[in-house]
Amino acid sequence: MKKVAFFAVIALTVSCITATAQNKKSMKKVLFVVTSHDKLGNTGEKTGFWTEELAAPYYELADKGVVIDIATPLGGQPPIDPKSEDPSAATEDTKRFDADTELLAKLKNTHKLADVKESDYDAVFYPGGHGPLWDLATDENSSALIEAFYTNNKPVAFVCHSPAVLKNVKVNGDFLVKGKKVTGFSNTEEEAVGLTDVVPFLLEDALQANGATYSKVSDWQPYAVEDGLLITGQNPASSKLVAEKLLNQLNLKK
User: Fold this and answer.
1) What distance in Å separates the CA atoms of residue 222 and residue 116, rounded to the nearest whole number?
2) What's the confidence (pLDDT) of residue 32?
3) Which of 35, 70, 114, 227 is most buried, judged by most C-beta within 10 A?
């Protein structure tokens, strides 16, 4: 009887280990790529990533069991746009973010963008804020990473200003956005925040210049566009819509 019990325990242990390994293998992993740029042109003001645009998608994915890593061009703590921390911009997700010691610690120790590999993830997501217009829009590591995800049939998702990082991304010699339906922070929204003459380029114009079919809704209203593997959202209010579309592509939607 003791031998039977012993072998039963061994079999149960092996079964548990196998199940755990299979569960880990089936878990989806998404890479968040965040700006390292903190200067708002020559204004003397600070910029960075917009809290809502990281927090809302992060929790939308993490609450479905998605494992999330965060990378930045410089590694370490990415700058947060101070305006996104204003109480007037607060949402339930940003309040959760402010109290989330685990996520805040993860942000302090982001991976260097040059060190991450597409093969380790199932999708990539870029939060916005004005920062990406200056660094990620011209970052060769970022462009190569997006191309790798896209050509390996993995979703690439962006919100608000982050579609700017597609500015130089090409696939088979053509701009990735050429002929694609996209959205992103509109010219009228940029005008409304008074930064038309501060930003290095207007996102709406840049997408259209690269052959994209750009569309938008009224300023500050939720709007997201999906064209194959490419998912884009217009503004901070669109963050969750983008995350929902990404979850759907990862087969994790309710």
Assistant:
1) 31
2) 98
3) 35
